[in-house]
Description:
single chain; alpha+beta; Lipocalin; 2 domains; 8-stranded antiparallel barrel; 4 helices; 13 strands; elongated; disordered N terminus
Amino acid sequence: xxxxxxxxxxxxxxxxxxxxxxxxxxxxxxxxxxxxxxxxxxxxxxxxxxxxxxxxxxxxxxxxxxxxxxxxxxxxxxxxxxxxxxxxxxxxxxxxxxxxxxxxxxxxxxxxxxxxxxxxxxxxxxxxxxxxxxxxxxxxxxxxxxxxxxxxxxxxxxxxxxxxxxxxxxxxxxxxxxxxxxxxxxxxxxxxxxxxxxxxxxxxxxxxxxxxxxxxxxxxxxxxxxxxxxxxxxxxxxxxxxxxxxxxxxxxxxxxxxxxxxxxxxxxxxxxxx
Length: 274
């Protein structure tokens, strides 16, 4: 009889221990499941930024003005390229570059087509993209490039901010002002430079909420100064050989600082190296 009582007590204790262990195990499983669910929900709902790639269209332009005491030189570059990335949720995160093909430079300083043609030839020689420059050298200095390194300031934090206005052809657009720090490369020489630009982000008609812009139009809001001396842009013959003494002949017809304004458009791309 006593043995039976002891066995019953042992059995009761064992059942209690198993019950406690079972509750603790169930609690741990429930907690682990809740953590997993919370992590999954957070992964789905967290507003993580994403980079949208845009390719610069080839029909952009750069307008160049050099004001000297005796003459004002006006020129234009008519081919662009490049790619940049932006985060629609954080417009301070913009990186990339814009390139201008200086082999397309054409001057229009005069009323005479003959004078403009001659000055265009001089400009291309000075930039070492003249007809007799070696192909390797011409390609090395062909592109003037502005590489965006940092957004100094922006008028809107994200693309959802600001007033949406009707866009030409339907859809909507928003304008954002940027001040950009970057590196300017002209004639193979790189210098730091700051550029102020206005960007118009354009959405197609019927674009769903949260869609990326279908097109971006960018233009400089102030001219960017470029020093000819700093960039080693100077008188050269068609083969790119420096013409010693030519600056004295040019005299007061040319100043050192070129003021450059630009405009380009960009469309979405998946190619980071167009």
